[in-house]
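Following up on my earlier message about zinc ion. Here are the inputs again, as you asked, copied directly from the submission form:
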Amino acid sequence: MNTIISLLMAAVLLVPGLSYGKGITVTVTIPPIATLVESIAGADARVFILLKAGSDPHSYEPSPSDMKKIAGSDLVVSVGFGFERWLTKILESNEGNRGGALDCSVVVKDTIALGVSGDVNPHYWLDPVIMIDVSRHISSVLTEQYPNRKEEIEKNRDSLISKLQSLDGEIRARLARLEHRKFIAFHSAWDYFARRYNLVQADVIETAHEKEPSAKHFASLIRKIRKEKIRAVFTEAQSSSRLAKTLAEETGAREGILDTIGGVRGRADYFSLMRFNADQLGKTFGE
Ligand SMILES: [Zn+2]
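Thanks, got it. Here's what our run produced:
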């Protein structure tokens, strides 16, 4: 009898067309997190991404139309760890937003410090395994808010998690046999990625945000590349390639490009973005 009732209940829950109502509106700060939200929330959700393609997330400032989107959203999803200081101010202000706020960083364990500042490095989204925990968190917040969508949300979450697991396996396979493992990054964005895939971010070009490196730091980078025989120097899609180019020319290292954000053609979603990065690493190491 109980089995029949639960079967009947399962059938009812699986009936398509149960909806959020009129559909939910979610505002997300960066494209990699948007991929998770879109995959989990499903087709009835409208997902806005605040960060425009090619813009630098660290110096982003919301426009009046962004403020409107935030205010009108059912949910605002952020990276956290102080990455979007501007958002905290908006959410705390009177306009705020009518829905909830979801800070993905609350489920990130084993954080990495950002230089000597004592702050937490916020670039955890570049580790696909951490993104599995973030997916679970997004799914549990959504099912809490929309219990009538629980089945669908959890099904979407499970298929997203298996895609993230395959992505992790793919990147691991691409980078496993690299002979060279040390690289110079443009800024401290690749610590989580390097830890996951057994690479070494030996140093960064830009030690403080939007500040040209000092002549002293630049000279120390050149010495380090030569001494440690570092093969690869990376610029980033949102930055000028000038400094990485000069470093490569001075030392004979190879120059490549990495992208922390994507949202552009060819790497619009998280999966294509991460495949691009793994491939760039392999290619730039010449392997
Ligand atoms: Zn960054």
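One observation from looking it over: The pocket of zinc ion is lined by residues 58, 123, 187, 189, 260 (CB under 6 Å). Hope that helps, and feel free to reply on this thread.
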